[in-house]
Design goal:
Layout (H helix, E strand, L loop, with lengths): L2 H13 L6 H23 L3 H27 L5 H20 L9 H17 L1
Helix pairs in contact: 2-3, 2-4, 3-5, 4-5
Amino acid sequence: MGESGVIDKLSESVLGDRSVKPFELFFDLVFVFAFTQVTQLLAHELSWVGLGQGVLLIAALWLAWQSYVWLGTMIDVDDGAVRLVMLVVMGAMLAGALAVPHAFSNGAVFLRWYTRSCVFSSSCCS
């Protein structure tokens, strides 16, 4: 497929009438769990520092979520290989979500996970 074929396919997916698929909603639930984990962090750190940490985590999670939403809009997530990659990403996101309450206390586990997630996302989109 040439360059114009790729552009046409992307244009169809963006401009066409596209409904949300159950798999995409399930993927979003993993992010919802991650967002709720931020409240766990805030419950244990009731200070301005804790609030700042919570805001940083929400910003990082929001950035990751919107990147995957964009990716899901641009490609067909029901394709076999793409679905498998998204399942792997979902597992990594779940592991990252479990690390959120300890993001700033256990040697920056969340920061290492987030960096790997961003590198993986960038390599998939390139």
